[in-house]
Amino acid sequence: MSAARPLTTLRTLAVIATLPLLLTACGYGSKAKSDDTAKVAAGAKKIDGLGSVRIGYFGNLTHATALVGREQGLFQKELGATKAEYATFNAGPSEIEALNSSSIDIGWIGPSPAINGYTKSNGKSLRIIGGSASGGVKLVVNPKKIKSLKDVKGKKIATPQLGNTQDVAFLNWAAEQGYKIDPQSGKGDVTVVRTDNKITPDAYKSGSIDGAWVPEPTASKLVAEGGKVLLDESTLWPDKKFVITNIIVSQKFLDAHPKAVEAVLKASVESNKWINANPDAAKTAANKQLTADSGKALPANVLDPAWSSISFTDDPLASTLNTEAAHAVKAGLLTKPDLKGIYDLTLLNKVLKAEGESTVDDAGLGVG
Question: Cα–Cα distances in Å, from 158 out to 203, 209, 327?
Fold first, then answer.
């Protein structure tokens, strides 16, 4: 396995230094496993003759479309006798590496690693084929040390990983406040501490960080430990909408097996429709799958506020991806990319039309 790399086309030394942490925290992602609880309908046939489709996602509530789709058996239903297999990840670079090595075929992932994977391969490795979620990211701080936004200066703020989606967002916000921070070392007017989401709550409790810019459910876990939400990232975006989770596919797999990709997208659309129609049942289903994946359920005081801050949508919110890429360039983590062709929403719009839903736009970043 080659070293997982951050959202940068120029520097890799910082990630080489953190690679052992990534490998310890997430391995390569869990080994792909069939979902033996999902029943294959009698008489169902394999799609394109495929034995399986391998699906990746994170153990985050911002990936609840995948969590619910798996727990409800929707992916298996649409794939027929082709087995749905799953792998879970804690970091975007490891999921991109898995996609590039054909260890997974399709994945739920944040915008920054999707941009990075696309640009690193000169547009040949992947396509974004759908949206999944918006929101669910907050700046949570120790209220004894930080009482207002101006108090963030001089403090230690955690983000999940160098160059990840939240890291880029925080660096951009800090720059807009006039703070100067070296993007690689994280040192400056604010100290950025790159910390795996799994250990961020413990870092907060120990006092080694003063706050964190993190996705759910980590943000609500910090609140449960006495933290205060100082800023909800959604308030920084037009209409309070920004992409937090996309659906990506290997370009090779998309070219070879469009019917299988369409089946997964149909299940994703069905999942989001069910989530939005049945929010309480969907929240329970997502937590059930998280429990199956991690062995530990989220308590109500974490699950409820986390869930309420996320919206689930098939729209990839393409214009906000372009903005996030611009933020990464501004932060010094990315050379200005050419994202033309990163989206292929053909199959998603086919599914949406068949369901009587409105089609979605690629903001001029689609293929063709």
Answer: 9, 7, 18
- SS3 percent helix, strand, coil of the chain, rounded to 5, is 45, 20, 35
Dig out the tokens for 297 from the structure. Answer: 């359920």
Assess whether pLDDT exceeds 50 at residue 8.
no
DSSP string, 293-351: HHS-PPPHHHHHHHHHTEEE-S---HHHHHHHHHHHHHHTSSPPP--TT-B--HHHHHH
Give the whole-angstrom CA distance, residue 215 versus residue 134. 11
Q: Is the pLDDT of residue 239 over 80?
A: yes
Q: Which distant-in-sequence residues (6+ apart) come within 8 Å of 221 by Cβ?
A: 200, 201, 302
In sequence order, which residues have a C-beta less than 8 Å from that of residue 253 and are 6 or more positions away?
Answer: 102, 105, 106, 260, 261
Q: What is the pLDDT of residues 333-357, one digit of tens each?
A: 889 999 999 999 999 999 999 999 9
Instruction: Give the number of C-alpha atoms closer than 13 A to the C-alpha of residue 100, restricted to the C-beta side.
Output: 24
Question: What is the percentage of the chain residues whose pLDDT exceeds 90?
Answer: 82
Q: Which residues on adjacent β-strands are paired with residue 229?
A: 140
174: which 2 tokens? 């800090």
pLDDT reported for residue 221: 97
Residue 34 CB neighbours (<10 A): 13
What residue has token string 């619910």? 68
Cβ-based neighbours of 238, under 8 Å, separated by 6 or more: none
Average pLDDT over residues 297-323: 96
Q: What b/e sequence results for 158-180 when a residue is b if at least 16 CB atoms lie within 10 Å of its CB, and e otherwise?
A: bbbbbbbbbbbbbbbbbbeeeee
CA distance 342 to 365: 6
